[in-house]
């Protein structure tokens, strides 16, 4: 295929456009917020004790992720993947408003306004830590559960392309989405380096010997909260106009099945597409 043909498919397939935005947003949010350097700067430099904080916070994040993963699967089965993605990305966005506020009020060196765990030299758990665990845990659990949700939705966009144009090209649809996914993953590390350079004036990525500065705190807030929140906002805007709901996909699959059956019986593709355009025209046995 020529590049112009790929461009034409993307131009005509509106759901695929929106899914690419949603997929890129979810992937970018996860890639940057879980970047090793960002977490080292957050727990080691801003909070002051990487050894006592990193492991407990990551374990808590995965503990929260399990129930939300199960809930997102249940919502997807009942209401469709679009509804599930919107619901749990919205929860993540709301929770990270709380995380953002906590990071803004964080005071380096003040035990009552920083994270604290009684683990490897840490202090006693305080109210700040409890609030951070709640907001971060629920937020992390929901966005981790939805991070890869756009991937299976590519199949819906492929079915829609078959419904729209008559072309069965799942490999091409997957390739286009994978390209965007890989570009975003590659961009994440570049953004991390650029933001540390722009905000903290660092010539290289920070490590455990890098001293605290307000510039590093600003960089951490941007990467740990602001960029993911903007990415989730873009995801929600993209999904607002995403038309491939669970009910719509049942109609599309029924029409595609009717056209396929007609073609197998000798009808041309053009005739089949003309004959079956809505679910009302599909034989009853193919509607379920």
Characteristic terms for this protein:
288 residues; mainly alpha; Growth Hormone, Chain: A; 11 helices; 0% strand; elongated; transmembrane
Give an account of the 3D structure:
The longest helix is centred in the middle third of the chain and has 31 residues. The chain folds into 2 domains: 240 residues, Growth Hormone, Chain: A (Up-down Bundle), CATH 1.20.1250.20; 44 residues. Helix 7 packs across helix 8. It is elongated and about 75 Å long. The protein starts with a helix and ends in a 13-residue tail after the last helix. The model has no long low-confidence stretch (mean pLDDT 89). 75% of the residues lie in helices and 0% in strands. The protein has 11 helices and no strands. With 288 residues, the chain is an all-alpha fold.
Summarize this entry quickly.
The protein is mainly α.
SSE string: HHHHHHHHHHH
Looking at the structure, what is the overall shape? Answer: elongated
What's the average pLDDT? 89
Question: Roughly how many Å apart are the termini?
Answer: 35 Å
By CATH, the superfamily of the largest domain comes out as: MFS general substrate transporter like domains
Q: What's the main sheet like?
A: none
Count of the separate structural domains: 2
Q: Number of helical segments?
A: 11
Low-confidence runs (pLDDT<50, min 5 residues)? none
């Amino acid at each position: 295929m020529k590049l112009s043909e790929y461009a034409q498919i993307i131009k005509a397939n509106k759901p695929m456009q929106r899914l690419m935005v949603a997929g890129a947003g979810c992937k970018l949010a996860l890639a940057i917020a879980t970047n090793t350097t960002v977490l080292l700067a957050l727990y080691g430099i801003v909070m002051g004790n990487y050894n006592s904080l990193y492991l407990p916070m990551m374990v808590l994040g995965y503990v929260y992720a399990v129930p939300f993963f199960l809930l997102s699967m249940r919502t997807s089965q009942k209401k469709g993947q679009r509804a599930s993605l919107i619901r749990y990305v919205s929860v993540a966005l709301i929770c990270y408003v709380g995380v953002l506020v906590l990071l803004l009020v964080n005071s380096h060196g003040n035990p009552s306004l920083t994270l604290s765990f009684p683990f490897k030299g840490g202090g006693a758990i305080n109210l700040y830590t409890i609030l951070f665990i709640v907001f971060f845990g629920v937020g992390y659990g929901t966005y981790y559960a939805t991070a890869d949700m756009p991937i299976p939705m590519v199949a819906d966009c492929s079915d829609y392309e078959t419904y729209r144009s008559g072309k069965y090209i799942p490999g091409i649809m997957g390739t286009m989405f994978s390209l965007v996914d890989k570009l975003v993953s590659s961009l994440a590390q570049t953004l991390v380096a650029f933001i540390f350079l722009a905000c903290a004036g660092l010539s290289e990525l920070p490590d455990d010997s890098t001293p605290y500065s307000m510039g590093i705190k600003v960089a951490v807030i941007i990467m740990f909260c602001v960029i993911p929140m903007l990415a989730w906002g873009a995801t929600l805007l993209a999904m607002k106009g995403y038309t491939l709901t669970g009910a719509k996909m049942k109609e599309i699959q029924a029409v595609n099945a009717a056209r396929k059956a007609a073609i197998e019986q000798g009808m041309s593709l053009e005739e089949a597409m003309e004959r079956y355009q809505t679910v009302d025209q599909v034989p009853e046995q193919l509607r379920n």
